[in-house]
Amino acid sequence: MKTKKLHKILDEIKSIFLNGFFTLIPITVTLLLFKTTFKIVSGWIHPLHKIQPACLQNIPYSEFILVILFIFLTGIILKFFILKRFIHFIEESIFAKIPLLRSLYSGIKRLVNALTQKDQSSFQKVVLVEFPNSGTYSVGFLTGEVPQYLAPTKDKIYYNIFVPHTPNPTSGFFVLVEKDRFRETDLSRQEAMALIISGGIIKPDRFNK
Predict the structure, then answer these.
(1) Which of 1, 74, 136, 199 is most buried by its number of CB atoms within 10 A?
(2) Is the model's pLDDT at 41 over the cut of 80?
(3) Under 8 Å between Cβ of 47 and 67
(4) β-pair partners for 80
């Protein structure tokens, strides 16, 4: 009898401990990632601390204020089309003429645009594609139809699909897939990215209702 009570007490203690443990893990990991990211970014922009106005130098991490103001100011200027020609000139005269830099810059720019609302054509649809094995589905982005001269077989139509990695969606797999090997969804790009980055933990709110 005493043994059963002891086991019950130990199970209750174990349950309380695990509840606390699994409650604190997301908070701890989030704070750790935030701290790490903050430390990295702070190291990148720390040189700004020496060139900023004297009135800001006594404020901790005041260089972040300068960066935020600079980004905001750039957005305002671009909003009114003042810098667009200048940015275009830099892209055409510098980035477009250096082979390695051209490919890197173009790829990053197109990926960023595709993941935002700026580009409605690069990532046309969110799809479920049979990948990497038959019967196993991955979330991917339809990017267009494969030209006939690149298709594995000439008698079938293939589509370009980008399958991002979890949790880093900036890398992934580029696959050529037949129409019957994937299906379109009504997910937005932002909803799909949240699913991919979180490993399926973060789902669209409309599916929870």
Answers:
(1) 74
(2) no
(3) no
(4) none
Return the structure tokens found at 9.
């007490």
Global confidence as pTM: 0.51
pLDDT of res. 100: 67
Place of tokens 């293939």: 158
Q: What does the pLDDT average to over 193-205?
A: 81
Confidence class for position 101, pLDDT limits 50, 70, 90:
low
SS3 content of the chain, % helix, strand, coil (to 5): 55, 15, 30
The single-letter code of the amino acid at 166 is: T
Half-sphere exposure of 8 (CA within 13 A, CB side): 5
- Which residues does 152 contact at the CB level (< 8 Å), separation at least 6? 158, 176
Exposed/middle/buried for 52, CB within 10 Å: 0-12, 13-18, 19+? Answer: middle
Distance CA 176, CA 143 (A): 10
Q: Which helix (H) or strand (E) holds 190?
A: helix 189-197
Count other Cβ atoms within 10 Å, centred on residue 96: 13
Tell me the three state secondary structure of residue 126.
Answer: strand
Return the residue matching tokens 């991002």. Answer: 164
**How far is it, in rounded angstroms, from Cα 33 to Cα 48?**
24
CA separation for the pair 101, 98 (Å, rounded):
5
pLDDT digits (tens, 9 = 90+) for 138-192: 999 998 888 888 888 888 889 999 998 888 777 888 999 988 889 999 888 888 8
Q: Residue type for 5, please?
A: K
What residue segments make up the domains of the chain, in order of their start? 125-208
